[in-house]
Automatic annotation (TrEMBL):
SUPFAM superfamilies: Metallo-hydrolase/oxidoreductase, Rhodanese/Cell cycle control phosphatase. It comes from Rubripirellula reticaptiva. GO terms for molecular function: hydrolase activity; metal ion binding; sulfur dioxygenase activity. GO terms for biological process: glutathione metabolic process; hydrogen sulfide metabolic process. This is Putative polyketide biosynthesis zinc-dependent hydrolase BaeB. InterPro entries: Metallo-B-lactamas, Mito_Persulfide_Diox, POD-like_MBL-fold, Rhodanese-like_dom, Rhodanese-like_dom_sf, RibonucZ/Hydroxyglut_hydro. Keywords: Hydrolase, Metal-binding. The keyword Nucleotide-binding does not apply. It holds the Pfam family Lactamase_B. Its EC number is 3.-.-.-. SMART domains: Lactamase_B, RHOD. The keyword Cell membrane does not apply. Residues 270-361, 376-464 form the Rhodanese domain. The gene is baeB_1.
Amino acid sequence: MFVLEPILTDGIAQLSYFVADTGTGTAAVIDPRTDVEIYESLARKHGVSITHIFETHIHADFVSGSRSLADRLGTAKIFLSGVQADYKIDAEPVSDGQEFGFGSFILTARHTPGHTPEHLSFLMCEAKHPDQPWAVFSGDSLFVGSAGRPDLLGSGQVNELAKSLYDTLYNFYLKLEDYVTIYPGHGAGSACGADIGDRLNSTIGYERRTNKFLSFPNFEAFREFVVDDAPPVPWHYPELKKINSAGSAIMDRLPTIPALPPHAFRKVAREPGVTTIDTRSMTAFGGGHVPGSINIAARPEMSPWVGQMFDLKHRLLLVLDKDTDAEQIQRLVVRSGHSQFAGYLAGGMKAWETAGLPLERLEQLSVHELRDYQRTGTGPTILDVRSPDEWNNGHVPGAEHHFIAEMRDRITGLDKEQHYVTYCASGYRASIASSLMKSRGFQHVSNVPGSWSAWLAEGYPVETGKEVSHA
């Protein structure tokens, strides 16, 4: 029996795949994530042995789990592109057109550069119809409604990669039959492609008719769209690329994270290179938190934001909602490349308060209060910390744009004595921004729970460019 199971990793919107043939008892995993137990569980569920681990390319947005999975299983080899490859991983090189048989099905590797020089895609066909692929694992070359970005290796290679991406899309993908199913490496929310669609798979025929990346009459127009209009590259992507090229650490278990009583926690928090992250909700954080801590709530999107905001050399201290949340939060954090944990606050904020240690608060403003401030003309300066595209599509009238990712190293152009209020789409990123500002000495900062979504829900005015309209 043939088995195909996609595994979606929320937060980083990454898709890996488990494919197996129960008749021969063999299986393969494509682009495994860091916490690899899920693949071993699937192998046991279907009574098969994972023999092959395929990487479509050297990833930039998450830590690869290939070496950890191979070490854990003891039965599988890692297979990576042997074309224009630049990595130090102990892996079997794969060439364009190389076939891998798994009883009832065959995977055929195809060199599909553009997102990266070495990128591979894998065509799938039935063994009895070897010349008629019915599916393709496209990695980060073709997405639902989008395509992989060619600018992650820096400006020096972007033109060459953009040309390679154009050739891949127009001379490989568009020559496949319309019925071929596309299984991409990412879903909506990943920064590896612009505006990736919500569906987890598609077909060549559907993308041929709807995907703008496949609609350009010439390379020049394609390049302008793909390169000039690309969103900012997340800061940590080049660092993760280096980690995965060198070979990510084998993780047979989650890193040790000491439980620290309040006074010990406070002492460690003052050490150089230590960052304190409060993983509770924005309203809980606002009500009282450890001075200097940054609020990144324990949701799937925690993974990319921890990676985006903090150097991988930082040692992380965690404040949890419950001590039993430690393992779940560690799993989210290690996907971002962070593996150095200084500890967590044993007993949480209740223990901190009982110990009589100082608290800071972060004011939470409703959209109604923010609108009332606007009407009086005496309110705080409003900071929109969303992406440039979100800002351009509409924002609170009178707001200033300060993209949160650009606050990572320094916050420029703002007076620490003034009153600022931050908002984003829901309040999640705004709470990161406002807590970051507080930690850097801004005296009066407020956050808006619900943020832009709540603003629109109330029908308040919307500004696009210099025009003000009503939602």
